[in-house]
From TrEMBL:
<dbReference type="InterPro" id="IPR013792">
    <property type="entry name" value="RNA3'P_cycl/enolpyr_Trfase_a/b"/>
</dbReference>
<dbReference type="InterPro" id="IPR001986">
    <property type="entry name" value="Enolpyruvate_Tfrase_dom"/>
</dbReference>
<comment type="similarity">
    <text>Belongs to the EPSP synthase family. MurA subfamily.</text>
</comment>
<keyword id="KW-0131">Cell cycle</keyword>
<keyword id="KW-0573">Peptidoglycan synthesis</keyword>
<dbReference type="InterPro" id="IPR050068">
    <property type="entry name" value="MurA_subfamily"/>
</dbReference>
<dbReference type="GO" id="GO:0051301">
    <property type="term" value="P:cell division"/>
</dbReference>
<dbReference type="GO" id="GO:0071555">
    <property type="term" value="P:cell wall organization"/>
</dbReference>
<keyword id="KW-0132">Cell division</keyword>
<feature type="domain" description="Enolpyruvate transferase">
    <location>
        <begin position="7"/>
        <end position="407"/>
    </location>
</feature>
<comment type="pathway">
    <text>Cell wall biogenesis; peptidoglycan biosynthesis.</text>
</comment>
<keyword id="KW-0808">Transferase</keyword>
<keyword id="KW-0963">Cytoplasm</keyword>
<dbReference type="GO" id="GO:0019277">
    <property type="term" value="P:UDP-N-acetylgalactosamine biosynthetic process"/>
</dbReference>
<dbReference type="InterPro" id="IPR005750">
    <property type="entry name" value="UDP_GlcNAc_COvinyl_MurA"/>
</dbReference>
<dbReference type="GO" id="GO:0008760">
    <property type="term" value="F:UDP-N-acetylglucosamine 1-carboxyvinyltransferase activity"/>
</dbReference>
<dbReference type="Pfam" id="PF00275">
    <property type="entry name" value="EPSP_synthase"/>
</dbReference>
């Protein structure tokens, strides 16, 4: 397994182009299942997860080709298989995004249950509640969920989500595009990736109002055509680089971004004393001499993103004062704490809260990545720490960050990847 080695303690500086958003690319790949021909997806990040979803779509019968690095063409006209196998789903729970489009297009979807992951149990009861409301018959057996539409197809319904779920609302929205009649989804997730998916479905001929707001209305249509799309930038990658400027005492400009998607992170970095300026699609972050502590409570969009909680915690370990960080979305998203403590951080845990007492500096250590965003947190800590940090199990990082160490090297960081067996 690969490792990343960082010689920390130096400010980073410069500009970095943000890649396409993983969490928009995955549902949009799934949405191509609903099309009848060739879709072209541009600005697709080259990640383990995007390669996995491409493999899944192929498994269903589509022809998928990757051209020029960040462009994919997907020919969905040959999709006939409604089953997503355990072998693929176990590596990426977002494979459950195939449920909605498959049952809408083929009348059936059989997807291995995603199972939990490091950050929580992550059930899909809300996904199934919505599909059942649209008339589907749900059967759970042998680790699979088997969803069957009635012979006459799905029928629109009024669905109020019990909680905010991003992929839950995506699955239901995709299924409803071909359901007869009107579907209204209340208490819908408002993440930019939901809006991006809605915009793609509309390009395919779907009749959708309100994607990206708390109430989404879908009028079913008979069929959808394939369409081309450019994937939106990755707001979590951008926020991670912004946080890297802050933790290293440096100055970074992220380009090809949309500041509106990272408003909560910009506010929090400003609270910590950073100077943040937005000019068009560029966001510049200049670190203060010494970071101020700040309290954080994760929340659904537009609140502070849970996918930035671990990275911000790294920042707070060397801020002036005490910070309280509450994780309200996932029940086990503090796996980075033990690793940060190995680097000298002073963090105590109580329920879903972490209390961080700022220390003068972190010191490099051998640490282990446990999940995608915890890995990013350890990279940030390593960039700030005095001495050498060795991060193992970086395959977690490769799920969601494209060429991360190269991008940080270009910003002046002393960071390199050491290839291990097994990737
Ligand atoms: C999406 O996951 C993202 N992944 C996650 O990003 C992100 O952390 C999360 O949304 C929250 O913003 C993708 O978009 C591929 P949820 P998702 O359904 O949709 C509970 C990353 O690092 N819940 O919004 O799976 C669930 O357990 C990843 O890029 C149910 O109980 O998250 C969680 O506690 C990590 N039942 C909460 O709701 C359900 O049916 C939010 O989950 C669905 C969810």
């Amino acid at each position: 397994m690969d490792k990343i080695i960082i010689e920390g303690g130096r400010p980073i500086g410069g500009a970095v182009k943000i890649s396409g958003a993983k969490n928009a690319a995955l549902p949009i790949f799934a949405a191509t299942i609903l099309g009848d021909g060739v879709s072209r997806l541009a600005n697709v990040p080259d990640l383990r997860d995007t390669r996995t979803i491409a493999k899944l779509i192929e498994e269903l019968g589509a022809k998928v080709a990757r051209d020029h690095g960040d462009e994919y063409t997907v020919d969905s006209s040959t999709i006939t298989n409604y089953e997503a196998p355990y072998e693929l789903v176990k590596t990426m729970r977002a494979s459950c995004l195939a449920l909605g489009p498959l049952v809408a297009r083929l009348g059936r979807a059989k997807v291995s249950l995603p199972g939990g992951c490091a950050i929580g149990e992550r059930p899909i009861d809300q996904h199934l509640k919505g599909l059942s409301a649209l008339g589907a018959d749900i059967e759970l057996a042998h680790g699979y969920v088997d969803v069957k539409a009635p012979p006459k197809g799905l029928t629109g319904a009024h669905i109020t989500m019990d909680m905010i779920t991003v992929t839950g609302v995506m699955n239901i929205m995709m299924a409803a595009t071909l359901a007869k009649g009107r579907t209204v989804i209340e208490n819908a997730a408002r993440e930019p990736e939901v809006l991006a998916l809605g915009e793609y479905l509309i390009k395919m001929g779907a009749n959708i109002e309100g994607a990206g707001t708390a109430t989404i209305t879908i009028e079913g249509v008979a069929s959808l055509r394939s369409a081309d799309i450019v994937i939106i930038p990755d707001r979590i990658e951008a926020a991670t680089f912004m946080a890297a400027a802050a933790i290293t005492g440096g100055s970074v400009t992220v380009t090809d971004m949309d500041a509106a998607m990272v408003g909560a992170v910009i506010d929090k970095l400003a609270d910590c004393g950073c100077k943040v300026e937005t000019l068009g699609a560029d966001i510049s972050v200049q670190a203060p001499e010494k970071l101020r502590s700040a309290n954080i409570s994760t929340a659904p969009y537009p609140g502070f993103p849970t996918d930035m909680q671990a990275q911000m915690m790294a920042l707070m370990t060397i801020a002036n004062g005490t910070s309280v960080i509450k994780e309200t979305i996932f029940e086990n998203r503090f796996m980075h704490v033990a690793e940060l403590r190995r680097m000298g951080a002073d963090i105590s845990l109580g329920g879903n809260s972490a209390t961080v007492l700022g220390v003068s500096h972190l010191s490099g250590a051998e640490v282990m990545a446990t999940d995608l965003r915890a890995s990013a947190s350890l990279v940030l800590a390593g960039l700030a720490a005095e001495g050498e940090t060795v991060i193992s199990r970086v395959y977690h990082l490769d799920r969601g960050y494209e060429h991360l160490e190269e991008k940080f090297s270009r910003l002046g960081a002393n960071i390199r990847r050491v290839k291990g067996e097994g990737g």
